[in-house]
Design a protein that fits this description.
Elements lengths: L9 H18 L2 H9 L5 E2 H7 L5 H13 L3 E6 L5 E6 L1 H39 L1
Antiparallel strand pairs: 1-3, 2-3
Length: 131
């Protein structure tokens, strides 16, 4: 930090930013994004999420859903059937977030080839520099 701005400390900045950082960490997490995108089209069952999200473990799916429910981003509805039927659905706040996630997903899809080419060029340049 600048010595001239003595009224603002690193601790003060971190204390103010911490809640925002926590929210961003939660909603931008690898599994959270995929769950929120998968649930965007209406209620979805646990097993549908598990099958639809490649690489997620049952435990990680459970933990992520609990955290999203705790944060008010998904609702969990248990139907009194045998076996119990459980559905997850986005809350209005999460639907608003989904608009942003959809734009990010669209951007990623449009630019994935560019990024892959940039990585290859960077890696090729690093190999030459390291040799």
């Amino acid at each position: 930090m600048s010595q001239r701005n003595t009224g603002v400390t690193v601790q003060a900045v971190n204390a103010h930013a911490c809640p925002v950082r926590e929210v961003l960490d939660r909603v931008a997490g690898k599994w959270s994004v995929q769950i929120l995108v998968a649930a965007a089209y209406g209620p979805i069952r646990f097993t549908e999420l598990e099958r639809g999200i490649e690489g997620i473990s049952r435990r990680m799916l459970t933990l992520t859903l609990r955290n999203l429910e705790r944060d008010g981003l998904v609702t969990r509805t248990v139907f009194p059937t045998v076996p119990p039927k459980v559905e997850y659905e986005l809350t209005p706040v999460a639907r608003e977030l989904n608009e942003t996630l959809q734009r990010l997903t669209d951007w990623s899809e449009r630019n994935r080839v560019y990024i892959a080419e940039a990585r290859a060029a960077y890696d090729a340049g690093r190999e030459t520099a390291d040799a």
